Amino acid sequence: MKYHIGITWKSILCLLCLGSFVLAEGSGGFAGSFLRVGLGPRALSMGNAQVATSDNIYGLFYNPGGVAHLKDRELALSLSNMSLDRRFNFIGISTPLPPFAGVAFGWINSGVKDLRSYNSNGEDVGEVENGTNAVYAAFAIQPIAMAQKDGALKKVPADFLSIGLAVKFLQEDISDKGDFDYSANGVGVDFGVLLRPVASLSLGYQIKDLGSKLSSNTNDLFTRGSQLDNAFPLTQKVGLFWISPLKWAALAYDFEWNDKGTEKQHAGLELSSDYAVGRVGYDDGRFTAGGGIDFDAIQGLRMALDYAFV
Question: Widest CA span of the chain, in angstroms?
Fold first, then answer.
């Protein structure tokens, strides 16, 4: 089993970091912005270029197709306490399903507490708390490997193609722990494909937030309440991950666009050895960096300690 833990130098002792970039995201003004920040120190330090290198627990977020390539059971934990009382937490677990599938589950929790609340007259009426949650379930298969068990496609590499689906259950609440209690719920779907034409090159595609929205009814909160449906932008990504002939150097690149007209570019470089790794990246206008170590903690348990500067 592999256990992931990390540090991001933007918030002390945390795995993930929203920093000051949440509002700077191109689609930050639309619903679901907490799911467009990024997940995991490896991804953040490589500029969020991950759609073609997602064969780990974070595949459920970046490309569900990568979950079919899991080699070990993995556990990832994150607790992030940031400025302005913000939080961004993640827990996930994944396991391969030999010989040609994998499954992963995860929970992202984001929010802020102690927000001042004002009525229509501008009067301070106390504090409210906001929380958003996304619970993921992802499954992926390698169709070529499946066909080869029946004697077909023997000349095609077994890991040439993998496809995956992630279903996420969405929830948001705003509450003053008294009379005001707003909540919204929804479901969304992500779909991903991963191609490996040769051992050193992977190509990835993800379409994210198919049908994702937060639905609520405010009739109990306001005199003129209504049914609200806040749809998430539909996002697509294509990318590549190339392992150079040097073996210890690899490059990643993603191009991202959505139905709101936003386009982004992500790039990353990873330099690795048996026990240590260094990373730099470009995340649509800002530079990132990080690194980590990989070691055997006890027999049967391998740990990855990663950090990112964003």
Answer: 73
Output the six-digit token pair for 228.
């609200």
Q: Where are the domains of the chain?
A: 2-309
Q: CA–CA separation, 91 vs 242, rounded Å?
A: 29
What pTM was computed for the model? 0.84
Q: Tell me the β-bridge partners of 250.
A: 243, 270
**For every one of its 310 residues, what pLDDT tens digit does the chain have, with 9 covering 90 and above?**
655 554 444 332 333 333 333 333 455 567 888 888 888 889 999 999 999 999 999 999 999 999 999 998 998 887 666 666 677 889 999 999 999 999 999 999 988 876 766 655 666 666 777 789 999 999 999 999 999 998 899 999 999 999 999 999 999 887 766 666 778 899 999 999 999 999 999 999 999 999 999 887 765 665 555 677 889 999 999 999 999 999 999 999 999 999 999 999 999 999 999 889 999 999 999 999 999 888 777 777 778 888 888 7
Evaluate whether the domain defined by 2-309 bears CATH number 2.170.150.70: no
Give the residue carrying structure tokens 């106390």. Answer: 126
